[in-house]
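Write out this protein's structure.
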Amino acid sequence: MTLGMLSISRHSQASISTLHIFSNSASRVSLQLFDLSATARPYRPAIVVTRRQLSRSTSHPLRSLRVLGGNMSLSNAKIISREPLREEEARWTKLVKTTFTDPNGKTRNWESAERRTRPAGSEVDGVGIVAILLKSEGPEIILQKQYRPPVGKVCIEVPAGLIDEGESVGTCALRELKEETGYVGELASGPSAISPLMFNDPGFCNTNLHLVHVTIDMDRPENREVKPELEENEFIEVFTVPLRNLLEECRRLDDEGYAIDARVGTLAEGIELASKWKLF
């Protein structure tokens, strides 16, 4: 079918849709999308339009395209109900009452949550991955869109995941990156490759992570035709943003109704602070 400047063709044998976008100069960008209903996979990260004037134009038809490939639109997800969770039903989290003494010696109680998934003997729950694509026009960061039931919104996140028993932080980061995005990365060099242990919301839970910095060489053959390796219950859309435009993109996505993960927002604000105060 054709809609204005968009042309969408479907290939049933391969379960692939091809989206053609025509610019004013009549040049064409061809993007392939995996049909989620047939393959349980999202579109490839190649969905990101390389012609930035197309992808960033608010008047371009791509901006109004919400459903790409039928059931794979994240906007289909919705909350059906909310109710208290009984202890015997909880698989992933548990509520804890901690009794402690404050600085004045007074005994107090604190309610918090804990994950049940942290490996025995480990101090770490998981990793967040700052994955940078090395491109000639400038570095780009890999981001994801994923529906999160606790907030009832599609969230903008960095790739992330829980650490397996006996797994190192670096190995976990490279594994999760490959599974969620299809990209093969390399750990950044130097002491800044892995962040100090960071706590997500210490007033509410003990969940923590390391941010792991990874670079992705786009000249590697493995990174030319990437395919995520998602589980049946994972629905992730991958896209990239030029690092220099990260805060601007966060503001735009927030205006469109997306929820910005604190890790993404903090990275964006950090880049803005470094630029404002000329730290480098």
